[in-house]
Amino acid sequence: MPDLSGLFTPDRVAIIGANDEEGSVGRALLKNLSSFDGDVIPVNPNLETVLGCECYSAIGDVPDAASIDLAVVAVPATVAVDVVRQIGNAGITDVVIITAGFSETGGEGEKREQELIDIAEEYDLNLVGPNCIGIISTPSGLNATFVRGEPPVGSISFMSQSGALIAAVLGWAAQHGVGFKDIASLGNEAVLDEIDFIEEWGDDPDTDVILAYLEDIDDGQRFIKTARDVTRETPIVVIKSGRTEAGAEAAASHTGSIAGSEDAYEAGLHQAGILRAMNIEEVFDYGQVLAGQPLLEDDDIAVVTNGGGPGVLTTDAVSDSRLRIAEFGDGVGAELADVLPGEADVANPLDIIGDADIDRFRESLDIVLSGESVAGAIVLCVPTETLGFDDLADAIGDLQGRHEKPVVTCLMGGEEADRAANTLESYGIPNYFDPERAVSSLEVLAKYRDVTEREYESPEAFDIEKERAREILLQAAERDVAHLGVEAVELLDAYGIPIPPSDLAESASEAESIAEEIGGPVAMKIVSPDILHKSDIGGVEVDVPIEAVRGTYRTLRERAIDHDSDATVLGVQIQEFVDPDESTETIVGVKRDPQFGHLMMFGLGGIFVQVFDDTAFRVAPISEREAREMTEEIQAAPMLQGARGRTPADVDGVVEIIQRISQLVTDFPAITELDINPLVVSPEGVHAIDLRLTVDREALPVGKLRETDG
């Protein structure tokens, strides 16, 4: 990994393109660096001085140029490439390119960006941008951006693929006292991307939380691996735009990014241990509470309030979350009864009555936080003449520190509440006007606890027949087709996935012979690469007795030709009929995503899979734990687990099949789509009944496979 520490801890910073023209980027950069602890060196061939400082014609003219730690480029795109080469020649390795006019503009801009990449590789440059607003590191006063705002010093590091969002956040952060360590505008990510900054900040002892606004992740597999390592110790909160189809189209035209599947992003972020925020407010709410508060040891919390209405609203919000209202227990109840008025109910949520003074609030919260059943608390207070928010803020901060349990607050009021919020911030306690935000922030402390406790497992390597599988896949190339159906069902057998006895019949008599050999009722399916949804055209018949097989064979072929007279019909698959009693039709599917690779899907299957949309996703390769999570996440999970008197299905068998399919598509990246539908699950076992897959013929391995080949 590149060492990016120099980007944020420079002693000498050169601004190439510095000038003193009002409203220019070069002037704004110099002004923002006026509080920088180190030296700032202006570079501009057209000026001798800039804002009273000596200005150099070129970076190579600066005395001891090699000792410059950071070069910030703000020159026209047409000369930026040459300037970066001069920077490399001078021996400077850390570069921020503010200049726009690269890949985001297409055509010539893309060529210029490729030149930047080539130069960065030649000189081993840590290059941020181009088309960004710069970087900030608050401990040294480094503000190498051209936007207004100076965030307070803190322990949150923030990166964004949108420079405009950083510009908006800086003023907001200063207004609300949200402190940052480092801030990076990623721009076009020609060289350094979000993964590099995750690695850097994950190793930074002064960064407690990483926040990110992302529109695109280029290398999803590397992202998951890197973030998974970092999130064990440092929480990462991401807001990902482009969740909707319209949003994805907008993202594709912004910073040259290409949006990937929302399901893949959701699965990838989850597997990486990343906490996902759904809006800008959430990302900073989560960042504040993670930076300032300890984790919840369990999900049981207390609500302490001097107003019944806000307490009810908070309880509703808790009910909508994973958190639980804690049971106080007799001991806590008895202590509370000693300090509260007789009309107070010593239950949770705890309403200490509207006339509560500071002593009642302090004593009540002290008792509640002492309770073994309480892992954290939300404190709500409305303004009254009997209580001052300033005193309350200090009391809450003191009690939170003594009990070392997470606390968030809702002090509802105007200027007095704002002052108290500033006091609470000094204790690391966030304050919200809306109880729902307080609940959501406390809940994220439970979610991150899950991440820290998660044990990552390596995917299991099953004993399979890879060479046999390759030969089956090559049938697609030999027939010059991209789609394979049940005629390729032996592929599953090669990977140890149970399939009912079956064979392909090319005539009615052959169909009858196969059925007799199977010995009983059969399922019959038309086999054609041109007919993907066989059920829709009547191409499937089940529970066919042997005496009806010949006639059914002819009927199925006639239906196929009636549907598409040009369709290539390979024959009819004759398969042992699996009794549906006490069985559940599920689906295991795979789709290759451009960012993350193969996206695994499990859900309720059969002909209604798209109607019910009951699915769970993970990015391959996946472990046994991740496969089991998939079976537990779908709404139909109780059907598999034995709901309403059903005999529990063979869930372990499903978990193994999901893993085997994960191994299959990892071994053969040429598989672009795969569906086993239905995968019939019963108490007796699991059977793959039907298969459909699409392959990239040009990516198929044609030589004999070695053991390590895919």
Automatic annotation (TrEMBL):
Reaction catalysis annotation: acetate + ATP + CoA = acetyl-CoA + ADP + phosphate
Keywords per UniProt: ATP-binding, Ligase, Nucleotide-binding
Molecular functions (GO terms): acetate-CoA ligase (ADP-forming) activity; ATP binding; metal ion binding
Keyword hit for ATP-binding: yes
Pfam family, one: Succ_CoA_lig
PROSITE patterns reported for this sequence: ATP_GRASP (PS50975)
EC number: 6.2.1.13
ATP-grasp domain span: 489-525
InterPro entries: Acyl-CoA_Synth/Transferase, ATP-grasp, ATP_grasp_subdomain_1, CoA-bd, Ligase_CoA_dom, NAD(P)-bd_dom_sf, Succ_CoA_lig_flav_dom, Succinyl-CoA_synth-like
Gene3D superfamilies in UniProt: ATP-grasp fold, A domain, ATP-grasp fold, B domain, NAD(P)-binding Rossmann-like Domain, Succinyl-CoA synthetase domains
PANTHER family named among the record's database cross-references: 3-HYDROXYPROPIONATE--COA LIGASE [ADP-FORMING] (PTHR43334:SF1), ACETATE--COA LIGASE [ADP-FORMING] (PTHR43334)
Protein name: acetate--CoA ligase (ADP-forming)
